[in-house]
Specification:
The structure holds 2 protein chains of 2 kinds. Chain A is mainly alpha-helical. Chain A contains 3 helices and no strands. By secondary structure, chain B is an alpha+beta fold.
């Protein structure tokens, strides 16, 4: 039971930020696509902007890894 | 690197101004900045004033502008033929062209109007011909003497066909027949047949219901359909011949005059650009003065050129750049050798200010290392190295791709290096086939050491950024900002050491003095930086933790490679296994190029550069022939 709870905690730690990241990236991606239609020279900048919310899921992943390692 | 700039003043007799500006445009090394003179004159009694053109010069400028507009109009009407440049000196013949251009404009306009009419007529005739040729087979079986009259209609939408048919049947009491055919280009045309008595009524119905009848030239309307088609063909042929004649006349005009007009236009544009450049000059009673910016390394050469060309009458003087002018100094980046290709990435950012740093060398130094840390695989590194050679050597004609190839080459070298340290060759294939072991960290299993390593990289990178920020602030005499950054740096270091002391109780680090140091410095930070200063400190911690992505993305890459190997092995067949593993490794490699690039750049742009880089510099835009 305890193992299951730890696994659930780890899954939530990475899963919820993943949903948040996906939502943020969808918004940035849509706005970025609109921007690129008018200014294709901003491609590089838009790619970087889309990558910014990935911090959330990466930190979630780290927390999940720590939960699994520490308990 | 940011090229060192010089503030210069060019001074000479007023009558030499145009010649000096022409020389400066030719050299493309000087950016005039009238704002400098304005600032110097502000509030002071000076003998200089903005240069005003004389009445003759204004007349000449207006004349040139007018001529330029007319020549441009003429060139838009003439066909754009690739003709050799004319051997013509425009200045002596500019008056002749002023008279000629009106005549040629009129002639070209006449040809253009005629051409437009002929093209319209040709398009209409072609359309009619296609329709009638499509309808012709339907009439082939009719007796020559028939009491029937025929109308052609166009049907824009096949869904309306039944409606039209029902309507005509109803309004003509069933005394008509609608046949339909499709033209070669897919359009739908109909032939309505009715008796001569009902023809007038049919015409009225078609007008009332806005059913589009195929129009015909009036003189063809009364003819039989085969006659109509024949006449249409003749007329179309005549039309094509007339159009070709008009095009030929226009082309003859272009062949004779286009090179000369192009030459005159280029000369006019150059001349008018010089007139526009005079707006940046100031004048005294006898002299002109132009102030501006140029690369410090080119000052002596330009001075010598001016002196030689104007027999010492025009002088160039280098002025001291004042502190308040530093923000206005235009910026030009120049990176030699290894660093040059990395300008591809620094160009994604706005230009740095003149007093700040060029981000290119930092990207050149750290980007390949971070990329290698993330991807870290001997097999992938080798493939990327080969790919980079191919891109850099094979596509020299495409500077962007060639530069990206060179950047990829540097990143591939570090990928190989970290691949050796992590003991990875296509994931765990090296271990299974060649008994390859990590020299340093086993990324797949040692998660905690990798997290600590990634965060350590973050600490080093971010603190280096803070040190550069302190140095920049000290150079700009912004003591308070420098102190704030210094305190942030010390507090960050103390907090990290405190964390280490707490996590490793056996270490020589003591918790109490570290905690005391933090509690002592934190109020000082608030006093100097305000209530938001601790938030900035928190942001710094966030920046450092963000480097954990080095471990996270790297681990994903390793796991994908391992999955590729295991799935390949699970097929139980060598060929199928190679295919499955090959496809998955190719996919992983694609991700392995994209993800480390984006995340390494992000670590630079967001985490590192935010600590010291002042963006928003002004681009160096010298007078040159490419800039009208």
């Amino acid at each position: 039971m305890e193992k299951a709870l730890i696994a659930l905690a780890a899954a939530l730690a990475v899963g919820l930020p993943a949903i948040a990241t996906a939502w943020a990236q969808s918004r940035i991606g849509a706005a970025g696509a609109g921007t690129l239609a008018e200014k294709p020279e901003l491609t590089g900048t838009i790619i970087i902007l889309v990558a910014i919310p990935e911090t959330m899921v990466i930190l979630g992943f780290v927390v999940a890894a720590m939960i699994l390692m520490m308990f | 690197m940011i090229v060192r700039m010089a503030k210069v003043e060019i001074l000479g007799p007023k009558e030499q101004l145009m010649a000096v500006l022409e020389l400066l445009r030719g050299r493309g090394a000087f950016q005039p900045d009238p704002g400098l003179m304005q600032a110097a004159a502000h509030g002071a009694e000076t003998l200089t004033r903005g240069l005003v053109l004389s009445a003759t010069e204004i007349r000449e400028r207006l004349f040139f502008e007018n001529l330029q507009t007319r020549i441009r109009s003429l060139l838009t009407m003439l066909p754009d033929l690739p003709l050799a440049a004319a051997a013509l000196q425009p200045l002596p013949v500019v008056d002749v062209f002023d008279e000629l251009v009106d005549r040629h404009l009129e002639e070209a306009e006449q040809h253009q109007v005629r051409l437009e009419e002929l093209r319209l007529e040709e398009a209409g005739l072609s359309r009619d011909l296609v329709f009638w040729e499509t309808l012709e087979p339907m009439l082939a079986d009719l007796p020559e003497e028939s009491d029937l009259e025929f109308f052609g209609i166009t049907i824009h939408d096949a869904r309306h066909l039944e409606g039209i048919r029902a309507l005509l049947q109803e309004r003509l009491y069933g005394q008509c027949r609608v046949s339909v055919a499709t033209t070669p280009d897919g359009a739908l045309v109909g032939l309505v047949a009715t008796s001569r008595q009902m023809a007038e009524q049919l015409r009225m119905v078609m007008t009332d219901e806005r059913i589009p009848e195929l129009s015909l030239p009036e003189d063809l309307a009364g003819r039989s359909i085969p006659d109509r088609i024949l006449a249409l063909r003749h007329r179309l042929l005549d039309c094509q011949v007339a159009r070709e004649q008009a095009e030929h006349s226009l082309e003859s005009l272009a062949r004779r005059w286009l090179p000369s007009y192009r030459q005159v236009l280029a000369w006019l544009e150059e001349r008018l650009a010089l007139y526009r450049a005079t707006a940046t000059a100031y004048e005294t009673r006898q002299c002109f003065v132009v102030e501006g910016w140029m690369a410090a390394s080119e000052v002596e050469t330009l001075r010598a050129d001016l002196s030689a060309q104007f027999a010492g009458q025009v002088v160039l003087e280098q002025l001291e750049i004042l502190n308040e002018e530093l923000e206005q100094v235009p910026v030009v980046l120049h990176n030699p050798g290894y660093f040059a290709p990395f300008e591809v990435f620094s160009s994604l950012l706005p230009l740095p200010k003149y007093t700040s740093y060029d981000p290119t060398p930092f990207i050149g130094l750290f980007f390949p290392v971070l990329f290698g840390m993330i991807l870290g695989d001997i097999g992938y590194g080798f493939i990327l190295l080969c790919l980079s050679f191919g891109l850099a050597r094979g596509l020299k004609g495409h500077p962007l791709i060639s530069n990206l190839g060179k950047v990829l080459g540097a990143a591939a070298v570090y990928t190989l290096l970290f691949g050796v340290l992590f003991g990875e060759l296509f994931g765990d294939l090296g271990e299974r086939w060649f008994n390859l072991h990590p020299l340093w960290i086993d990324r797949m299993h040692a998660l905690a050491p990798m997290i600590i390593f990634s965060i350590s990289v973050g600490v080093a990178h971010v603190l280096f950024g803070l040190v550069l920020g302190i140095w920049t602030d000290l150079r700009r005499q912004r003591g308070r900002e420098a102190l704030l950054k210094f305190l942030s740096m010390v507090l960050t270091l103390l907090t990290i050491l405190l964390l280490v002391a707490w996590l490793v109780p056996d270490s020589w680090l003591a918790v109490r003095p570290l905690l005391g140091g933090i509690l002592l410095l934190l109020p000082l930070l608030v006093v100097i930086g305000g209530l938001l200063a601790p938030l900035e400190l928190l942001k710094t911690f966030g920046n450092i933790v963000s480097y954990v992505r080095i471990m996270a993305i790297g681990l994903c890459s390793v796991l994908l490679a391992v999955v590729a190997n295991r799935l390949g092995g699970a097929t139980g067949d060598i060929l199928a296994g190679l295919l499955v593993a090959g496809v998955l490794h190719a996919f992983n490699l694609l991700l392995g190029v994209f993800a480390p690039t984006v995340h390494s750049l992000r670590l630079h742009y967001v985490e590192f550069f935010s600590k010291f880089l002042d963006l928003g510099g002004r681009r160096f835009e010298p007078l040159n022939r490419d800039r009208p």
